[in-house]
Amino acid sequence: MNILSGNDRHEADQNNGAGGVKAMLRRIWEYLLLTFGAAVAAFAVEEFLVPNTILDGGVVGVGIIVNHLTGIKLSVLTFALNLPFMIVGYRILGRYFFIKAGYSMAVFSVFLELFAPLANMTTEPLLAVCFGGILLGAGVGMVISAGGCLDGTETVAILINRRTDFPVGRTVLIINVVIYTIAGFQFNFDSAMYSLLTYYIASKVLDFIDNGMNQAKAAMIITNDGAAIADMIYKRMGRTVTILEGEGLISGRKDVLYCVLNRLEVYELKKLINEADASAFIAINEVSEIIGNHIKKKADG
């Protein structure tokens, strides 16, 4: 039995209280970032892209096409079309992703509605492509860095990746090319080419903010209880882990875990590690290329 003296208990309570305050402040900051990022992305879509018949990729692009055909509000279409992907995201990436993605998409839809009546920023397509692409990439980057998501098609890309090892970024690109091709027939091919250029600019800005949109991430985790954490990563994220033995100069024997994942899973990994072992050391690096088979948990069904 572990018995603490009065001073020890007081110090432990202070440490727990400080940790709780830091966690609360971090959560507040994340939701502020989600809100601001969603607002910036919505401003880019409504004030630059939509007035010039330039499409965003994914669900928003489909929403813009349907909006032109039916007149249904883009804010309503965006949230409704994203809803099935949110459900898929809950299954793939867990409850925390579902909550943050749902919040981000709801805020994004609200700001689309708020910005719709405002005067358009420009009617010059090239200016709309450049400034709209920059603002869109910045907004999406902020949302992703805080653990959220504005486009549900990325969850489908992750599901395909887990079943087939086909890269997430490549899947998203293929989906967007299909959408832009449809837009070319629906509107004109100038709009389709402007849309593709906007996607390129936005993705580069997102790369700058999130440090790699289409690249895999490699996580190295140094902990005292590698087996338990590896089991949690496998059960909750579907990712297998390589366990190595390490020796700290001062701390002694340690387990070293190595895991490859995608950028949308980084937040969930950090949340999981914090729950399992708050003292664990995590290093996350870019992976420029993956050669060979990467074993992952088989999808159900």
Structural descriptors:
11% strand, disordered N terminus, alpha+beta, Alpha-Beta Plaits
What do you see in this structure?
With 301 residues, the protein is an alpha+beta fold. The protein has 2 domains: 22-210, no CATH class; 216-287, ACT domain (Alpha-Beta Plaits). It is 65% helix and 11% strand. It has 10 helices and 4 strands; from the N terminus they run H-H-H-H-H-H-H-H-E-H-E-E-H-E. Strands 2-3-1-4 form a 4-stranded antiparallel beta sheet, covered by helices on one side. The radius of gyration is 22 Å and the shape is elongated.
What is the compact description of this entry?
This protein is 65% helix and 11% strand. The protein has 301 residues and is an alpha+beta fold. The chain starts with 5 loop residues before the first helix and ends in a 14-residue tail after the last strand.
- The percent range for helix content is 55-70%
* Number of domains as seen in the coordinates: 2
The structure class reads: alpha+beta
Inertia-based shape: elongated
- Give, in order, the helices and strands: HHHHHHHHEHEEHE
Beta-strand percent range: 5-15%
Oligomer: single chain
What topology does this entry show?
Layout: H1 6-49, H2 58-70, H3 74-93, H4 95-115, H5 125-145, H6 153-164, H7 168-186, H8 189-210, E1 216-223, H9 226-237, E2 242-248, E3 252-261, H10 266-276, E4 281-287
Antiparallel strand pairs: 1-3, 1-4, 2-3
Helix pairs in contact: 1-4, 1-5, 2-3, 2-7, 3-4, 3-6, 5-8, 6-7, 7-8, 9-10
